[in-house]
Amino acid sequence: MANVVKLKSGLNLRLEGTAVPNVVKTIVSDTVAIVPDNFHGIVPKVVVKPGDAVKVGSAVMYDKNHPEVQFVSPVSGEVVAVERGERRKVMKIVIKNDKKDEAVNFDKVSSAVEVKQLLLQAGMWAYIKQRPYDVIADPEVEPRDIFVTAFDNAPLAPTLAYDMLAGDDAKAFDKGLEALALLTQGKVYVGVEPESKVKVPAGIEMVAFKGNFPACNAGVQAHNIAPVNKGETIWTINALDVVVMGRLLIEGRVDMMRTVAVTGSEVASPAYVKALPGTPVADILKGNLIEADYARRVVSGNVLTGVNVSIEGYLGAYHSHVTVIPEGNDTHDFLGWAMPGCNALTTSRTFLSRWLPGRNRKPDARIHGGERAIIMSEEYDRVFPMDILPEYLVKAVIAFDIDRMEQLGIYEVAPEDFAACEFVDTSKLPLQDIIRKGLDALRKEMN
Fold first, then answer.
1. Tens-place pLDDT, residues 177-210
2. pLDDT tens per residue across span 390-422
3. Cα–Cα dist 97/367, whole Å
4. Cα–chain-centroid distance for residue 59?
5. Which residues are within 8 A (CB) of 387 and not within 5 positions of it... i.e. 6 or more apart?
6. Which partner for 306 in 53, 294, 299, 377 could form a disulfide, CB atoms 3.0-4.6 Å apart?
């Protein structure tokens, strides 16, 4: 029986458009794209050019700061474009899928050194992140501990994908965990929900978390198990990516196919599909949007931490979720906030909807107001399940007071940990962006 950690703070949003728990089809697109911006903090160096043939698992770019960290193709076919933006920034690498599924064959490994080298060569290292800074893990630094999050309780989360950890993906999950255990002299922790059926191999410690979002975040789990201190490094990874690692170790080839939830009030039939990271969102949503003459926001990920990719975008490298909601830019509410708000998505008792629990709401992308001074009302604390003073930390980050940031726990957090705070924030501040810029500036200063 796993230890149970009960979290009092958190946010529970009930939204329209939950996916029906069965996989309806597999999406096989004509093209896929590798988007460097999905991998925050890297400086990409492209090693392919248009016309080059690639296999599943062939390297297409690497990180200039750590050349051993490679990024690979999820399909076999031909590179058709390497698109660049301002100052020759690499925007995306587009690969035409020949649908032959020819793959690079990797040797079976057993030792820690061999496992590490395999994960680097096969592009799996990119899915291991570190604290501090919430960037791809430095392969030259051994972690104190590794934290795996094996559930998601964000709005409209892809719960079926995690249920498969105790079903079809169980063997690969176990193999991935055993490999991670070789990479640290500390512990490997797996965070689950209390009712989870997931089992882990001997030597892996399982901890259950009972609470609302962001209980599923690796940073929240690490904070409540064994917080990271200055000078320490921990690794975090999503359980769905551990499965991909396990497939590589078992089969000797890369298989990034994942179960993706297609959700939101604008989706005609919310369901699950099988798709690769980098799949065009248009292919995932094809024929499955309700007819509408208003603008809609397409998000890779959930509505709180996801990325606005538009219909021309691609499924993010770390995402198993696509959400579509109204943009809301053509909506004008009579009297605005002064109306009773029976259907408003809010945590404020000012609106009647706060007194009508149990109903699913249909949100849009409006923020209902502009930025203003921080109001020290402890509203962040009600949704922030970490023993950190979030309002003071945000202020310290804005001022870039390094000593104060360190005292308030900057090394433990990631932008996603502030998603719930951003939702309830009456100051309308882009808290995730503030934390992201603060972490980047701190990393640059310390290195």
1. 999 999 999 999 999 999 999 999 999 999 999 9
2. 999 999 999 999 999 999 999 999 999 999 999
3. 39
4. 23
5. 223
6. 299
Torsion-angle region of residue 82: left (phi > 0), alpha (psi -120 to 50) or beta?
Answer: beta
Distance between CA atoms of residues 120 and 158, nearest Å: 28
Q: Round to whole Å and give the CA distance between 122 and 104.
A: 9
Q: How far is 32 from 294, CA to CA, in rounded Å?
A: 28
How far apart are alpha carbons 144 and 162 in whole angstroms?
26
SS3 65: coil
Helix (H) or strand (E) holding 444: helix 431-446
Q: How many CB atoms lie within 10 A of CB 405?
A: 22
Q: Are 35 and 317 in contact (CB under 8 A)?
A: yes
Question: How many domains does one find in the chain?
Answer: 2
In a domain, 127, yes or no: yes
Per DSSP, what are the bridge partners of residue 148?
Answer: 190, 237
Domain that holds residue 422: 381-446
H or E element in which residue 96 lies? strand 90-97
CA-to-CA distance for 403 and 393, rounded, in angstroms? 11
Beta-carbon contacts of residue 384 (< 8 Å; ≥ 6 apart): 9, 390, 417, 418, 420, 421
DSSP 8-state class, residue 289: B
